[in-house]
Amino acid sequence: MTALNAAVREIADEMASRPDRGEVADYIPELARADPGAFGIAVIGPEGIAAAGDADAPFSIQSVSKVFTLTLALGLAGDRLWNRVGREPSGNPFNSIVQLERERGVPRNPFINAGAIAVTDVILSGHQPREALGEILRFLQFIAEDETIYIDDAVAKSERRTGFRNAALANYMKSFGVLENPVDFTLGVYFHHCAIAMSCRQLAMAGRYLAHSGRNPTTGFNVVSPERARRINALMLTCGHYDGSGEFAYRVGLPGKSGVGGGILAIAPGKASIAVWSPGLDANGNSHLGRIALEMLAKRMGWSIFGADVP
Amino acid sequence: MTALNAAVREIADEMASRPDRGEVADYIPELARADPGAFGIAVIGPEGIAAAGDADAPFSIQSVSKVFTLTLALGLAGDRLWNRVGREPSGNPFNSIVQLERERGVPRNPFINAGAIAVTDVILSGHQPREALGEILRFLQFIAEDETIYIDDAVAKSERRTGFRNAALANYMKSFGVLENPVDFTLGVYFHHCAIAMSCRQLAMAGRYLAHSGRNPTTGFNVVSPERARRINALMLTCGHYDGSGEFAYRVGLPGKSGVGGGILAIAPGKASIAVWSPGLDANGNSHLGRIALEMLAKRMGWSIFGADVP
Amino acid sequence: MTALNAAVREIADEMASRPDRGEVADYIPELARADPGAFGIAVIGPEGIAAAGDADAPFSIQSVSKVFTLTLALGLAGDRLWNRVGREPSGNPFNSIVQLERERGVPRNPFINAGAIAVTDVILSGHQPREALGEILRFLQFIAEDETIYIDDAVAKSERRTGFRNAALANYMKSFGVLENPVDFTLGVYFHHCAIAMSCRQLAMAGRYLAHSGRNPTTGFNVVSPERARRINALMLTCGHYDGSGEFAYRVGLPGKSGVGGGILAIAPGKASIAVWSPGLDANGNSHLGRIALEMLAKRMGWSIFGADVP
Amino acid sequence: MTALNAAVREIADEMASRPDRGEVADYIPELARADPGAFGIAVIGPEGIAAAGDADAPFSIQSVSKVFTLTLALGLAGDRLWNRVGREPSGNPFNSIVQLERERGVPRNPFINAGAIAVTDVILSGHQPREALGEILRFLQFIAEDETIYIDDAVAKSERRTGFRNAALANYMKSFGVLENPVDFTLGVYFHHCAIAMSCRQLAMAGRYLAHSGRNPTTGFNVVSPERARRINALMLTCGHYDGSGEFAYRVGLPGKSGVGGGILAIAPGKASIAVWSPGLDANGNSHLGRIALEMLAKRMGWSIFGADVP
């Protein structure tokens, strides 16, 4: 058993028994059903995959999907995307609308809700919602090499029924011309790609290109250029955990993107693609145990991008 | 000549001839005298130092000093420091006071002005301003191994005469009990440590411990623990360039801290401590050519912390 | 000819010839067609009606309708209305969403857009939009004693097509439970009551109850209690001109409510109900010449509520 | 006994026995000593003065002084004053600094702390603090016809020691050039004029010019023009009770200015100058019983500026 396998197993064991598990999100009714006792982890490193706990249980990836829609939108629009969305941390909660008013409808970054909706609008760009959604799903199935990945319709419908805050953000951007498609189309695609269900194993598979200079390390297929992979990682580091991004960088030291379903995708550049899942969230809406598990893993493996234990 | 030497020289040559040089800061009268044509760079890597341009000309390090006062304050107060200052990007300009009102006087991070003033207050903690200032200066002379580093009194006086915005921040924090010392004492030390003058060579020397797990790579002396060095680097990455921190991470991919004097200290963990200087600033108050030079250097040397060109 | 008649005629003459006329609102396409040269005034005082200029031309009353929907909603819900909307000036533009975030979806007063949408939601309260709209229109026809008052469907449709900012406000409030009806229903009624077309004469007729302790001075019919009339007047004074309310009180000294169609209803308590109309707006979205005309009228007639020329 | 005398006595009796008395301000230590059981009222109407309760006990007038410094500054600078301070309600607490950042150091109105400090700076305008303060005090003694009015030095010193929030506001405005004098000079005068001690009787005497078209009704001396008196009343109505100004207009219907010492000066134009005092404050920092007493008085006497009970 490798050091990685041992680390992953021990972390999963410790996480299973911790009493502090955060709070399961309840603002989307369908998500509130998640089991707060669940914990999964999957790490794809140079020597293969290490997984433990509920690594094969599908969960709602929610905002983790924003990494993949950003990747797709950059492929479609290139740097023109940045006319519609910024690249700075927001200093505000994930669903804040204050910043949009101050900056005339242009969201601060592609990982807060407003920014991700703008990114979805770029992908949609004149197509039917069904087509755009199909493209997003096929992209995820392709990079994860797994055609069983699916959209959980019950979650998507649950979000649509209750997603008034996101509808406010979308209409607000629309009033400034930042969205080009009908608001309902863009929101429809957004709610559905947030409702994609994946397991930790599938998510870690999907994230490999970010750990390996934009390339599938097995097939050698280039998903994005090395520079683009670096830049997506940089955005994950500075903006991937909403108003807890500074804290995640400080404690874990890896680019990562969280979702309110309790999943986090983290990248150790050149080393590993990592997915963790535990539904209980902290005050910033990030997986409580997920963050702790990643902090332990990064420390134990010496994977922080900010320096090693030995000079 | 090493690849690093060649890179440094070519970058300095290109920077010398570029017509776009940003705007020299004029809100502190004494800083407005800087020569917009100046450019210096010094890199201390594993094979020694590479320097070019005005690498030995002293300039006002201004906010770059905040990296070193943070290091000192963490040594004095440990994690108790974080009761007085946060660890999140601010999403606001460097001298914004809005956030302080929303968060009851606790600044978002130690690198915006309010946060750095709170850090200075921790260092002062009951001592006379002269003593605290002496401690800061001696620390810099020690880690840079250069006793000629000095405080430029004309700059300090110039800031004191015009620093009403910082006085507003300090009084505001004092009203919430975030500062413990008399406001004038804390501001006096703050203005003076911002007025420290250093050359690129001295600054790169001073930053070595952040590139080498907290340790002076020559003497082996431990300045801070490896974990603390990582964490300071993480804060520099997420918060080191004010409201341009996301952009710096996106383009350069290195932890860095800028000052309105036009200096930037950047760290390539495990590889190099880098200082650049060019007085012209961009809209966010960061050195325009300094950022471009670091982007070129990081790309050419493959030093981005977010991934390499080859998987 | 009475002093009032003379004043009204001379003011209308001067307004007709002034070169500074403000800017016609263009964010609702249908409103942009208004003639910037138009000016109308109608004053119903103790000795009858004085009217001049385009006093009989119908215009889109827009936000002036909020006075009447507030009156209706208070009749339906009484003081329970104030659980859903505040009574303080906003210190922000009419369509700002910032305040909603800070105060958890409760708008500051019934005259900013968000507040008026919440008031409309109270009137709707479970009915079909068509019924609620019919009630609003009949109320206006009744108090103005004029059954020809109508809703301009072209304007309503124009607003619905472009009213993304209002849709953002409505969805935002809905997310906090401040709206009870489907967002589309509430917005539909809101857009249509803003699209009511009235002339100055009709509007001055409709406002009489506010000038006369809640009562129709001709028929003696009580529309509201004297206390409620006073309170509506107080709200008009402090909040009736968005972020120009202080200026209107300072210069005119009468309770008033403006609309982006260029109309203003002003009340001289115990003395007169006044309507002016000129489509050009000032920077705060209030009729430029309308405000000036009211300032001249109040001064000349000694109608300011803040004191007379002679002690 | 007149109806006014009876009303004043009955109101004072009721206020003396009410259990809900608000909270005495404690952020200025010296003010915290006030007796929460105190209540005073003095009304100067056409038939002379009616007073009851602690009408002759001196209290710290605090922000009520802003009415008189505004009057003085308008006399000195005329409409040029409005280059330094606005005329709109703030929509924020009395000591907020957020608005100053958004509007580049220009306070929204002369009655929030920042605005009153700017007004004080206009009065100071190059003079020594002692001279400016002398002028303010003499003005109050003159209009109140009472030379025993004095500045409570213990309160002034208490404020200076703890007034960090006001020092923040002053320094912030200074950074934008809105203040012309040394910050310490302006703040010194401000803290001292807030510390003026007056009784209800003295305060009602001082306010007579605002009730009588700018003129002392006894001597006929013109303090300000009728227009200026009206305008000051308008500012009191829209901005005189901080973020409770809308509520005060809604319930009381009179121009008024409150202070955290628990005093309120209210004006019934053409009818009466009224002062009430009770140290317990509501959540907006306005006298709890003072407001209730004024609501009762205005209702009983039919003094609301927004309309009468009988048409």
UniProtKB/TrEMBL annotation, chains A, B, C, D:
It is an enzyme of class 3 (hydrolase). GO terms for biological process: glutamate biosynthetic process; L-glutamine catabolic process. Pfam families: Glutaminase (PF04960). Its EC number is 3.5.1.2. SUPFAM superfamilies: beta-lactamase/transpeptidase-like. It comes from the Bacteria. Substrate binds at residues 63, 113, 159, 166, 190, 242, 260. It catalyses: L-glutamine + H2O = L-glutamate + NH4(+). One of its GO terms (molecular function) is glutaminase activity. PANTHER family: GLUTAMINASE (PTHR12544). Homotetramer. Belongs to the glutaminase family. This is Glutaminase. It comes from Methylocapsa palsarum.
